[in-house]
Amino acid sequence: MNKDKHIYIKMYNHEKGNIIERLVEDVIEMIILSQCPIEFNIEALKANAIIARTNLIRKMKLFGGEGSLYHENCDICDGEHYLGENILQKYKALSEKNLNKLEKAINDTKNLIITVNNKPIDARFHDTCGGSTENSENVIGTKTFYLRRVLCNYCKDSPNWQNEIEMDIKEISERLDTRFPYMNATENIRINNFVQDIKRDLLGRVASIKIGDSKFNGIDFKNKLDIDSTRFSIAPERLKIRTRGKGDGLGLCQWGANEMANLGKSYKQILEYYYTGIEIKEIDKPCINQPLKGRILMIDPGHGGNSSQDVIGIDGTREKDIVLDIAKLLKNQLEEAGAKVILTREVDEYVPLSQRVKTANEIRPNFFISLHLNSYHNSSIHGCEIYHYKNDRDSVNLALRIMKILSKDTDIIDRGIKIADFFILREIGVSSLHIEVEYLTNPDREKRLKDKKFLQNISKSITKGIIEYYKY
Ligand SMILES: [Zn+2]
Ligand SMILES: [Zn+2]
């Protein structure tokens, strides 16, 4: 098996406070155990493997998901319910046969997810529908067209097909935060088909009462039930609540899925039954080949225009032109990797710094990267410097990666990553870098910078650094 084809998910570790990369397939094992019994039919387990994978992929930043809501730069954390102690114990207690079954469910559905329009769906499921699943708008308020009501009698043998509990009126009133009227002995209560037609005399004694389908006079009722007086009232104190099904009824009915599998249906047929209009597909290859999918990057070629204060080489090479060339190459390469790229200028024109900042703060890219060439009165000086704003840790991390690759893959030397208080770095509300790629005042480097191939290598290195930063 090719290890590289495996997908890793970023998990926050609470105890150590660090990020751990885990194989998606390993996490799926745990999720399946949290979703359904291992005794389920293998086709039902495969359906669960695909559901688990779909929900994970949908969450992962790598695939454009929102990631963990609680931990930055993570997809999940080790506090997820499916990574809890009881699931871990379940996993450890698996017989060899069941462990093989679990692995088979995952391997036989390798890379498969449930999609609509090529996007992973919100693959909901519940224990037992009790006769029909539910439309999404009745549960979560939004109309999701693949979460439609379907009839299901497959779950009749579920242990949760029917259930009943008893609850005190007092508890019900507390949980619902509602009050039942205090009953006085001379008040009437009617519970349709149970207690009806209570007739009292003028002083409050019950003259007759209908209970169930029989009518009693007050004295008869008092004597038969051996109560103290015909001056009484009736109020319920406990309710018995009978339920059918278990869970919210959204998406796949677990016990129904198992029965379908027992009846010879495949995981595909099962999933297509409970999710309307879906496609089961391999995780989009371009997704894997597009490590920057979902990222928005703003590239800022410095200077531009006629009165530009850019550096000019001894041979007349202009900073504003070279950085624009690099920016365009960078745009192509980053877009190939799946990113959305915006340039602050696409031609040799004057764009005020304040305008660049304004646009960036409107677009709010993941990163804003300014490109420049450096100058020094001593023409022998050369190399790259990268600047970031103080305390911008994300920028430092990105700068480290870019610098490492740039100084390895090209002959540009590392002159350090430094803090700066430049206008753009300070005023922009997102992480940003200012890269002084090379010294144009060094005649030797000026010659190199006129070589398209060299510029290509520079932009490739920067792209690689960005991919490395976002790598999972
Ligand atoms: Zn069902
Ligand atoms: Zn400059």
TrEMBL record:
Boundaries of every MurNAc-LAA domain copy: 357-467
Cited SMART domains: Ami_3
Keywords (A to Z) from UniProt: Coiled coil, Hydrolase
One Gene Ontology CC term in the entry: outer membrane-bounded periplasmic space
Secretion signal span: none
Entry annotated with the keyword DNA repair: no
InterPro entries: MurNAc-LAA_cat (IPR002508), N-acetylmuramoyl_amidase_3 (IPR050695), SpoIID/LytB (IPR013486), SpoIID/LytB_N (IPR013693)
Coiled coil: 92-119
Top-rank taxon, per record: Bacteria
GO biological process: peptidoglycan catabolic process; sporulation resulting in formation of a cellular spore
Residue intervals passing through the bilayer: none
GO molecular function, one term: N-acetylmuramoyl-L-alanine amidase activity
Protein name: N-acetylmuramoyl-L-alanine amidase
Species this protein is from: Anaeromonas frigoriresistens
